[in-house]
UniProtKB/TrEMBL annotation, chain A:
<dbReference type="InterPro" id="IPR050957">
    <property type="entry name" value="BMP_lipoprotein"/>
</dbReference>
<dbReference type="Pfam" id="PF02608">
    <property type="entry name" value="Bmp"/>
</dbReference>
<keyword id="KW-0449">Lipoprotein</keyword>
<keyword id="KW-1003">Cell membrane</keyword>
<feature type="domain" description="ABC transporter substrate-binding protein PnrA-like">
    <location>
        <begin position="64"/>
        <end position="321"/>
    </location>
</feature>
<dbReference type="GO" id="GO:0005886">
    <property type="term" value="C:plasma membrane"/>
</dbReference>
<comment type="similarity">
    <text>Belongs to the BMP lipoprotein family.</text>
</comment>
<keyword id="KW-0472">Membrane</keyword>
<feature type="signal peptide">
    <location>
        <begin position="1"/>
        <end position="30"/>
    </location>
</feature>
From TrEMBL, chain B:
<feature type="region of interest" description="Disordered">
    <location>
        <begin position="1"/>
        <end position="22"/>
    </location>
</feature>
<dbReference type="Pfam" id="PF02653">
    <property type="entry name" value="BPD_transp_2"/>
</dbReference>
<feature type="transmembrane region" description="Helical">
    <location>
        <begin position="265"/>
        <end position="283"/>
    </location>
</feature>
<keyword id="KW-1003">Cell membrane</keyword>
<keyword id="KW-0472">Membrane</keyword>
<feature type="transmembrane region" description="Helical">
    <location>
        <begin position="92"/>
        <end position="112"/>
    </location>
</feature>
<feature type="transmembrane region" description="Helical">
    <location>
        <begin position="29"/>
        <end position="57"/>
    </location>
</feature>
<dbReference type="GO" id="GO:0005886">
    <property type="term" value="C:plasma membrane"/>
</dbReference>
<keyword id="KW-0812">Transmembrane</keyword>
Length: 366, 383
């Protein structure tokens, strides 16, 4: 065909195709660091040469992300760092695959099982089903599903879902909030009313009351089940309402909805001086930089540590069950290191330690 | 986009041999090459893109030839790899066609992404509900996918034909609207029972019986896509109906003068293209994920644009073009596993190939004065 009347379309197509790709995949500089066909990650303290994985002596760890990169400053990155630490500790082999397409989960896990890897970490609840299926097919390989809760009746000894006590993270954050508030009024802007979110919320409330019994907590869940975790406008609106009612610490927990609340507080008068916000899940200082003016900490799941510990367990023997409960805590204070009084810091530190060693109960029941 | 100039080239005759235009004294290979220059340009573009890719892979400290070997092995040779590649190729052929059909009329469909998504969610849901009917459920799911994809196309076509709304605007905006609507559906009314407590956005899993499987290593969806590509080629090249498409695309005013019902052709081209994209979505739901979740779309719709342009709007050529994209996408994970190269290299290669094929520079450089006239031409006439 000689005529090329669709040529006009080309620049637009290029722009779109590139934009489409860029949006979904982002950047990854990490891939090159993990070695080449012959290389071994000498600097990293673990090897990427997996030719000996069938050997009992060599412990090989694989990691599959859920359509994200290992530098996503969120779950994937935390799990990746945890796996790296474990591989270094065990002087083992570690490699990862960044999933590009949700339909490739099984194929990506197969890359590792085909090469006799000992343990495979899969990140995120989206991979729950694929992980169970792969564990059933490969009884010799141990699977660790980060943030995955398996359905009742799952009885596999080579599989464990790493879940985190949201109530403890909430409790620690609430305790800090209770000590920081001047107005004795706290607010929570939450996503859908489902168990993990409720645990964060009730933990926060109990923690706040434990620190300061004069405190009152305003709690609001997203009303609809539709875009509950992706409604920053609603989140911002609720945060604004709470601020208008003298709330001075807002806990935003609910994906983008919560992020909307954090960003709204960051824009408010006195943000970072008399008004604060607290993030959730990971250190949101990194994930939501717009919230930095008010973000004193985040109620955090300690994914990195959880992954490292669970991999150690996988190497040495049996998992503790189909679910493994990791630890929770709070994120670093970053720029608020000096704003928060030392006695507050030491009290919070103590509470976190007590929660983690089990001597303190959050009192949260669902 | 908006600068539209008319072109004087004759209506495209796809597939058929190109007119021999080499002087008589230049018989043999050179004449053949000049006669088939659009094919030659694509091959040269592929080679150049792979060479640039090789340099970048080298830069990451990996032997490029080894990397390409790994890529091809991972996509074609390894156990079950070819099936997976064909599985990925199937929706790409269809989204490619979804762009090709309107392109023949001079319309640029950027909405395959959204059309696919709507087809996927309703296809998945109907196949789940009608799962008891077995294979019939799967067929029903596919039909519903086509219907819902077409609904989006119908909207675009009608707006274009009767209100003059630029289809690039309407399709791209509808992508967002459809994404919002399907997300609302998948965490609302159509969310699977078991996913409600955990809040995972996915529909109920389609029963075993109503899923599309592979027959002798060939996914059913791939067979469907190939047949449809052939049908499109036949209709466009061999029927009055197809002739009308091409006439409108070549010169709308002449077509109107000749009595072609332009509005109807416009609406039909969008309807058919979008229906194919919707079918691609349903096939993905039925054949690979066995349910709908928002990630089902990936970049299939946008890849369709790449494929249509690589195929030079020839329906049959979408098959090899989609296969190429399928190979790259399937091999990418193994590439990262074996060599540590970031899988994004594949996107880069695709972009390079598209760039080379699309810009007229390469043809001019290769064929000098004998290059085909690259008249910048009419698309999106009714602005």
């Amino acid at each position: 065909m000689k005529s090329t009347r669709y040529l006009v379309a080309v620049p637009a197509a290029l722009a779109l195709a590139l934009a489409g790709c860029g949006g979904s995949t982002g950047t990854s500089g990490a891939g090159g660091d993990t070695g080449s066909d012959t290389g071994s990650g000498d600097t990293a303290g673990y090897s990427t040469d997996d030719s000996n994985c069938a050997d009992e002596e060599v412990f090989c760890i694989g990691l599959v992300t859920d359509t994200g990169n290992v530098d996503d400053k969120s779950f994937n990155q935390s799990a990746h760092e945890g796996a790296e630490a474990a591989a270094t500790e065990l002087e083992g082999v570690y490699k990862y695959i960044e999933t590009q397409d949700a339909k490739d989960y099984a194929a990506n896990m197969a890359q590792f099982t085909d090469n006799s890897y000992d343990a495979i970490v899969t990140v995120g609840f989206l991979m729950t089903e694929a992980t169970v299926a792969a564990a059933e097919e490969n009884p010799e390989t141990k699977f660790i599903g980060v943030d995955q809760g398996y359905p009742e009746g799952t009885e596999l000894t080579n599989l464990t879902g790493l879940i985190f006590p949201e109530d403890q993270a909430g409790y620690a954050a609430g305790f800090l909030a209770g000590l920081m508030t001047e107005t004795d009024k706290l607010g929570q802007v939450l996503g859908q009313e489902i168990p993990p979110v409720q645990k964060f919320a009730k933990g926060f409330e109990n923690g706040a009351k434990a620190a300061n019994d004069a405190v009152s907590v305003q709690t609001v869940y997203h009303p609809a089940g539709d875009n509950a975790f992706n409604d920053p406008v609603w989140g911002a609106g609720e945060a604004r309402k709470q601020l208008a009612q003298d709330v001075d610490v807002v806990f935003g927990a609910g994906g983008n909805t919560g992020n909307g609340a954090l960003q709204e507080v960051a824009k408010a008068d006195g943000a970072g001086e008399s008004v604060y916000c607290i993030g959730v899940d990971t250190d949101q200082w990194d994930t939501v930089p717009q919230a930095q003016p008010c973000l004193i900490t985040s109620a955090m799941k300690l994914i990195t540590k959880g992954v490292t510990d669970t991999l150690m367990t996988a190497e040495s023997g049996e998992f503790e069950g189909v679910q493994t409960v990791g630890e929770a805590g709070i994120a670093p204070y970053h720029d608020f290191e000096d704003t928060i009084p030392d006695d507050v810091k030491s009290q919070v530190e103590e509470i976190v330690a007590q929660l983690q060693d089990g001597s303190l109960e959050t009192g949260v029941t669902l | 986009m908006s600068d539209t100039r008319t072109e004087e080239a004759p209506p495209p005759s796809d597939g058929g041999p190109r007119e021999p235009e080499a002087p008589k004294d230049r018989a043999g290979l050179l004449a053949y090459l000049i006669g088939h220059q659009s094919g030659v340009v694509i091959v040269v573009a592929l080679v150049i893109a792979l060479l640039i890719g090789a340099a970048l892979i080298r830069y990451q400290g990996v032997n490029p030839w080894y990397a390409y070997e790994v890529l091809l092995r991972g996509a074609l040779v390894n156990d079950g790899a070819l099936t997976r590649t064909l599985q990925k190729t199937a929706p790409l052929v269809l989204t490619g066609l979804a762009v090709v059909l309107p392109l023949r009329v001079g319309l640029f469909n950027i909405g395959a992404q959204g059309q696919l998504q709507l087809g996927a969610i309703f296809g998945a849901w109907v196949a789940y509900v009608a799962g008891g009917a077995g294979f019939l459920g799967a067929v029903l799911g596919m039909l519903v996918g086509i219907v819902f994809g077409s609904v989006v196309g119908l909207l675009v076509g009608v707006l274009k034909a009767y209100r003059g709304v630029h289809e690039v605007i309407s399709t791209i905006m509808l992508n967002y609207i459809v994404a919002g609507v399907t997300f609302w559906l998948v965490v609302g009314p159509l969310q699977g029972e078991s996913s409600r407590t955990s809040g995972i956005p996915q529909t109920e899993s389609i029963p075993e019986a109503a899923r599309l499987d592979t027959v002798a290593g060939v996914p059913v969806g791939f067979a469907v896509a190939v047949v449809l590509a052939a049908v499109c080629w036949w209709v466009l090249g061999r029927t009055t109906f197809g002739f009308r498409f091409n006439t409108v695309g070549a010169n709308k005013e002449a077509a109107r003068y000749a009595g072609v019902p332009i509005n109807r052709v416009v609406v039909l081209s969008m309807l058919a293209g979008a229906g194919l994209a919707g079918l691609a979505g349903a096939l993905e739901a039925l054949g690979t994920l066995h349910r709908f979740e928002p990630a089902i779309v990936g970049s299939l719709g946008f890849d369709g644009i790449t494929i249509a342009l690589l195929a030079r709007a020839n329906p049959l050529a979408t098959i090899p073009a989609a296969f190429l994209v399928g190979i790259l996408r399937t091999g990418a994970a193994g590439l990262q596993f074996q060599t540590g190269i970031a899988p994004e290299i594949v996107d880069l290669l695709l972009a390079l190939i598209l760039l080379m094929v699309s810009i007229p520079v390469l043809g001019k450089w290769l064929f000098r004065s004998r290059a085909d006239k690259q008249s910048v031409a009419t698309t999106s006439w009714g602005n």
